[in-house]
Amino acid sequence: MSMPGVEASESELRERLTTILRATPPLMQVLSVARRLCLPDWLVFSGAVYQPVLNHLTSRALDYGIKDYDLGYFDASDLSYDAEDVVIRRVKAAFDEPLRSMVEVRNQARVHLWFETKFREPYGPLSCTAEALERFASATFAVGVRLESDDRLYIEAPFGLADLFALRLRPNPRRKTVGFARTAADVRRRWPEVVIDNGPRDFSGVK
Predict the structure, then answer these.
(1) Structural element, H or E, at residue 196
(2) Cα separation, 112 vs 137, whole angstroms
(3) Is the separation of the CB atoms in 154 and 148 below 8 Å?
(4) What is the tens place of the pLDDT at every residue in 34-53?
């Protein structure tokens, strides 16, 4: 067996990710319910996706550290909060506790309307949900998944999966953020095995 993130190809890492996520029942339940809701251009992303990998590689319970499930969708037809709130309420009604309180849904088409005020960083409009992954503080976090109608797990990973499976945390090379150091420190507190690497890496060849 190849070492995680070293000799494995990107396709092999995607297969490994699929296996890990399918073995995480709460996440699969979120994905299954989200599929039934038929939200436009939806993905589940952030900690709900990358943390099970960290847990698997460090022999922890697969749902260790998962505080919420970020569900993004994209609907530019109505950028009002009222329209988003209708979706938020619909999503909450589809879950029982504890997932009802853990699933956080946001319309990615309107993130630019509130992000700068909340986080003190500029944030231009997105063109789709997957584009949000390219704005994350760390390239390692930029993984999203969707459960397709044929039960296939669709994976979005604009920077690839090698860093994630190598337990290596790098800043986003395409968007400098003020939150990387704070985020990296928080990850190290929960997963001390993770290595912080501030060095550059060329992601241009990643599909």
Answers:
(1) strand 195-196
(2) 16
(3) yes
(4) 999 999 999 999 999 999 99
